[in-house]
Amino acid sequence: MSESSLKCIDVVAGLIWQQQRLLVCQRRPNQPFPLKWEFPGGKVEQGESSVDALKRELREELDIEVQQSSEIFNHTHVYSGVSEVNLRFFQIHEYGGQIKNVVFYQISWVGLKQLTQLDFLEGDLLLIRRLQNSEGIELLS
């Protein structure tokens, strides 16, 4: 399959902070990319805005209601032979409810330096590198 014929998917993800640690989630063994770590979020449905998709996904995955967020980074990543993913990352400034693990194998609060110790989805790695260097301060301010 050529890169130009890959399925193109729009994906949103939320960065949720608590005491200088970031919420990360591990995919279940029976999902595509089994046991990979990721930021919570998912596919944007047809006719849905990125913000509406983010709110829906975090409600479904973590049982929270996003009240305030801002896009901090976006890029496109190609999963060779699988799909081209347009990723939009949002910092979650405010949400209602208590975070619950609804769909993941596990969730964890991790410091920035520990992110590279986890086996993340390839599409998240560019953001992680930026968060860990001086650009991270710019992204989050």
Explain this structure to me?
This protein has one domain: Nucleoside Triphosphate Pyrophosphohydrolase, CATH 3.90.79. The protein has helices spanning 50-62, 122-132, 134-140, and strands at 7-15, 17-18, 21-26, 37-38, 41-43, 65-79, 83-96, 106-110. With 141 residues, it is of the alpha+beta class. The strands form two sheets. The chain has a four-stranded mixed sheet with strand order 5-1-7-6, sandwiched between helices. The chain is 22% helix and 40% strand.
Short overview:
With 141 residues, the protein is α+β, with helices and mostly antiparallel strands. It contains three helices and eight strands; from the N terminus they run βββββαβββαα. A four-stranded mixed beta sheet has the order 5-1-7-6, sandwiched between helices.
Q: Give the spatial strand order of the biggest sheet.
A: 5-1-7-6
Task: Kindly identify the CATH topology.
Answer: Nucleoside Triphosphate Pyrophosphohydrolase
Proportion of residues in β-strands: 35-45%
Overall pLDDT, averaged?
Answer: 93
The fourth-level CATH homologous superfamily is Nucleoside Triphosphate Pyrophosphohydrolase
Distance between the termini: 40 Å
Q: What order do the SSEs take from the amino end to the carboxyl end, as H and E?
A: EEEEEHEEEHH
Radius of gyration: 15 Å
Total number of distinct structural domains: 1
Which class in CATH terms? Answer: Alpha Beta
Poorly predicted regions are none
Label the structural class.
alpha+beta
Estimate percent helicity.
10-25%
Q: How many β-strand stretches?
A: 8
Shape: globular
Please count the helical segments: 3
Largest β sheet strand count, sense and barrel closure: 4 strands, mixed
CATH architecture: Alpha-Beta Complex
